[in-house]
Structure prediction request, 378 residues.
Amino acid sequence: MIPFTKPIIEDEEIEAVKRVLESGMLAEGKVSREFERLFSEFVGTKFATVTSNGTTALSTALEAMGIQPGDEVITSPFTFIASANSIAMVGGVPVFVDIKSDTYNIDPDLIEAAITEKTKAIMPIHIFGMPADMPHIMEVAEKHDLQVIEDACQAHGASINGKQIGSFGHCATFSFYATKNILTGEGGMVTTNDEELYDRMLMIKNHGRGKEGGYSHYQIGYNNRMMDIVAAIGVQQMKRFDFVLKERRKNALEFNEFFTEFDEIRPQVEDEGFKSGYHLYAPSLYSDRMNRDEIVSALRDEGVGSRAVYALPCHKQDTYLNIQNWRWAKFVAYPDYSKVSLPHAEEIGAQHFDIPVHPSLTIDEKNSIKDAFRKILS
Ligand SMILES: Cc1ncc(COP(=O)(O)O)c(C=O)c1O
Prediction:
């Protein structure tokens, strides 16, 4: 089976981890500072802080932004559940707005209608690495005085007109989970230009400790820190990131070109000036002959590691259908998510599937993937 992902871990990572282990300083420290420096430099923000994973990056940022129980955060339902769950974790109410069926990202034209007096923030998600329409979203946010947190957990290296994703919103979060464009196994980062927000995040992720360190604590916080063992992998991953991004893009554009032969396959659309990081390559199938589950299973039979990751958008997940069981439901009025209808998210949920696009794909593997489509769709 051609795997959908293949982490590149080489001698550089192994040596870097060994150095940390031998140093005796295993927890968050100077290697994490180096990872933050390289990452913020790449994204183009003044500040970045590491976290234990992408979910804690989101919850740390949302709490630092001041999201309170009952506050509404507008977001996309077509995502990994962690996006919406991070809102619910801090007591916020995820308000799902439909996506565009070509980009799979939140439709900025639908955001204003979802804004109420309880709305505090917008959380666009750059799904599969494809940038959401940040210029448009920032315009709506400014008009309504809302904060914006970019969920860039899948979008390392994505950009709009040369500006990196992660530098548009008031803050942005990244994940370094084992399948991501930059990977450390588990890990996360928040980027921001706002020093006060950054300072609040440092407190929240570290038990309310002051900048001076030691054992004076000023507020309730968590342990959302990263280990230097993990950061050491991240620093080395940053060094080969240009290569990873270039290869992912090359593979994705080659598949885009290939799929022009097949009317039934519609790749996710990159708008003019938008560049995906191609964390995943996920076209949609529109065919009278077979459905999405059948093509996934046919591809797997041909040895292609294909999946349909968000077949159930968030508002269709039991988590949100049973939100009355969540601890904040005693204090917060949630919408009846069973009545929420988001036709494009449901459509793409039913039609999309992914195929491998990782940087280690060989020419033979790409040819096998193309042959599999020719066989299945001929
Ligand atoms: C869009 C999105 N948001 C948030 C997360 C959460 O990141 P993590 O798994 O590192 O906690 C992920 C992880 O896959 C994700 O894809």
